[in-house]
Amino acid sequence: MAHDIEIIEKTPAEYSYKKRRSDRLMRSQLMMFALMIFMTLISFAAVQAGFSAYFVVPVVLLLAAVQVGLQLYYFMHMSEKGHGLVAFFMYGGMLIAFLTVLAFVTIIWW
Amino acid sequence: MTTVANSVGQKKGFGATLWDWLTTVDHKKIGILYLIGGGFFFVLGGIEAMLIRLQLLIPNNDFVSAGFFNELITMHGTTMIFLAAMPLLFGFMNAIVPLQIGARDVAFPFINSLGFWMFFFGGLFLNLSWFLDAAPDAGWTSYASLSIASTGHGIDFYAIGLQIAGAGTLMAGINFLVTIINMRAPGMTYMRMPLFTWTTFVASALILFAFPPLTIGIFFLTFDRMFGGNFFDHTAGGNTIIWEHIFWIFGHPEVYILILPAFGIFSEIFSVFARKRLFGYSAMVFATVLIGFLGFMVWAHHMFTVGLGPTANAIFAVATMAIAVPTGVKIFNWLLTIWGGSIKITTPMLYALGFIPSFVMGGVTGVQQGAAPLDYQLHDSYFIVAHFHYVIVGGVVLAILAATHYWWPKMFGTMLSEKLGKITFWFFFIGFHMTFFLQHFLGLMGMPRRVWTYMDGQGWNLFNMISTIGAILMAIGVIVLIINIIMTTAKNVRVGNDPWEDGRTLEWAIPSPPPFYNFAQTPLVRGLDTYWIEKQEGHNGYTAAEPVTDIHMPNGSIIPFFMTLGLFIAGFGAMYRVDHSWGLAVLIFGLAFTFLMMALRSIKDDLGYYVTKDQIRRTERGRD
Ligand code: HEM
Ligand SMILES: [Cu+2]
């Protein structure tokens, strides 16, 4: 069946712009990938090296948080346009969860 | 391929009609299914309420036994909140929100149908407890020590039934979120969305964040009761208070999931029948979002008497009272919307006018209970019963009744009788205040909540009797409504696009009921109160944003029904596994069946079908 679905052809300029853009994205993704592997290595090394747990645990948690951020922004495209609401929901949810946990560990249990 | 056969209104046999409803993914039909399902459970919960009130009519009554009374109050509360109020609101959300934003359906029609069937089968599961074993009897809050000690399978029915129904609710919430974010017509910016759409949006966000805690709490409960867990058993290292926290972290947002859509319904009705733009639209939106946020930060006001200590109580008391501020903003905005309007007292407007004083009373008692020291006096007394019925019946149920009258013509193409509607209103409204007003004083006089009976000579007799008579008046009101619905359907007098004549939002720009594709052309939205703007400019209908083109529509599917059936069967397996060896096999079979259905859905491509231009033109011409 033929339906009138519009097919939009790209102009050459558009095409080369898109290409350059995706090249750039690809490069940054590869870099971030390397960085994340590196951070994972640091975490493992920190545990292996036998530093005090008071040092290792916060460091590993911090690196984990950074990796979540990188994941969201570089691989899940949260920095791109049209993701404002997604970001709002995620940060809103985190804020609520944080306040809930904070209430437990400050005023409810201790 | 199943194509457009279902588009043309042919007469169909019973089997075909049934198949059509079991497989439908049309948001309007799912809306109607929600109304039927929710309406059924509303009547069921109402009957339970009448039995409770008859038992409390006179002192030392033994109309029902004490154990049965506990089952009645538990099932009444659970049914009314999860199976009546929420699904009825979902019915209107489904039927109306896509129309208000100019969409042809929700974002995920398949999941929409799945959500409905999960709600329905979950509710069915819960209520089968009446026949198969004992009904749950630990209150709708099902506090852990009590619910774990409860013998028989009652609480198991509660845990599994709510788990299934709750998953359906979560799906419905996510679906509405995605729909409202992605499916708005061109020009429908966030700040042009009608208030009902806005409140649906915020309520869905609350569902997204509040239902997972409930899921987890119920999982713990399920494991404690059926799989040897010890989450809440303090003798085995668990903690019984944790259930209360988890339950209320869900529970307080839940009450806002109920009331926010009700606020939305009344916002629409006020501005339509005062024939004025809603006063303070942006303040209304802001207040809705703020209530949504604050709703998560007050759960411990249900636990003041647990002994969290003065710091926690003080902070939660202040947070609780803060919610009264955005709520007050809304009340004043409604008053200022009516102020100076050219008011038409229709049935929906009557409900809206009755709502304001009723809900304000519930809000005021809420703030009183929010004062922790005072709550030590009020907690677990009839004062609490009065409070939450003032907000839930005086707010949510009045909104559902108002919406029934207001949107009935849009959903069914006929107009409910205004005369009978007003009779229903007066019976219900007077009955409601008679039932619950005096309960404040019963509470202050010391009558505890959830008691099977009470002794003579404490001065409680008269108020309890008046309360029961009020409940009978409410029941009469509901019966008149049912008669109204039957008569209206039998008479079948069809109405046009905008039967109230003052419709402001997009749903009134299209036929009642709308064709299955809703909008022949996607509308162009040029401001808040889209349809009102068009009417001001002398247009009849809406401005289109596109030429007539073929419309892509989803196919119906029976898979959601079967997926849910699998879970329903698995539920019985999980429960009877404890005392029969075949239980485990049933559990595995049910889950496997569900997974098989999920696999079928993933493997089989279903690309939907197209309604061609010609068919649309023919349908549209056939209408005028
Ligand atoms: C101004 C807003 C409100 C305030 C300050 C408020 C405050 C409270 C407080 C402090 C309690 C606990 C009382 C106790 O058990 O000792 C309570 C109970 C309750 N409230 Fe509200 N409330 C408000 C609005 C609402 C709304 C809008 C609803 C529902 C639509 C609602 C439904 C309930 C229910 C169902 C309970 C009883 C729960 C139970 O123990 O079974 N409230 N409220
Ligand atoms: Cu609350």
Automatic annotation (TrEMBL), chain A:
UniProt keywords (A-Z) are:
Cell membrane, Membrane, Transmembrane, Transmembrane helix
The annotated topology with respect to the bilayer is: Multi-pass membrane protein
Question: Which domain of life does this protein belong to?
Answer: Bacteria
Gene from which the chain derives: ctaF
Q: Which InterPro entries match?
A: Cyt_c_oxidase_su4_bacillaceae, Cyt_c_oxidase_su4_prok
Q: What is this protein called?
A: Cytochrome c oxidase subunit IVB
Where is the protein found, in the record's own terms?
Answer: Cell membrane
The UniProt entry, under NCBIfam families, shows: CoxD_Bacillus (TIGR02908)
**What sections of the protein cross the membrane?**
30-47, 53-76, 88-109
Automatic annotation (TrEMBL), chain B:
Q: Which UniProt keywords apply?
A: Cell membrane, Copper, Electron transport, Heme, Iron, Membrane, Metal-binding, Respiratory chain, Translocase, Transmembrane, Transmembrane helix, Transport
Enzyme Commission (EC) number? 7.1.1.9
Q: Read off the PROSITE patterns from this record.
A: COX1, COX1_CUB
Q: Which InterPro entries match?
A: Cyt_c_oxase-like_su1_dom, Cyt_c_oxase-like_su1_sf, Cyt_C_Oxase_1, Cyt_c_Oxase_su1_BS, Cyt_c_oxidase_su1_bac
Q: Which SUPFAM superfamilies match?
A: Cytochrome c oxidase subunit I-like
Domain Cytochrome oxidase subunit I profile: start-end pairs: 13-526
Q: Where in the cell is it found?
A: Cell membrane; Membrane
Q: Name one Pfam family in it.
A: COX1
Question: Which family is this protein grouped under?
Answer: Belongs to the heme-copper respiratory oxidase family.
> Tell me, what does this protein do in biology?
Cytochrome c oxidase is the component of the respiratory chain that catalyzes the reduction of oxygen to water. Subunits 1-3 form the functional core of the enzyme complex. CO I is the catalytic subunit of the enzyme. Electrons originating in cytochrome c are transferred via the copper A center of subunit 2 and heme A of subunit 1 to the bimetallic center formed by heme A3 and copper B.
Could you identify this protein by its name?
A: Cytochrome c oxidase subunit 1
Q: Which gene encodes it?
A: ctaD
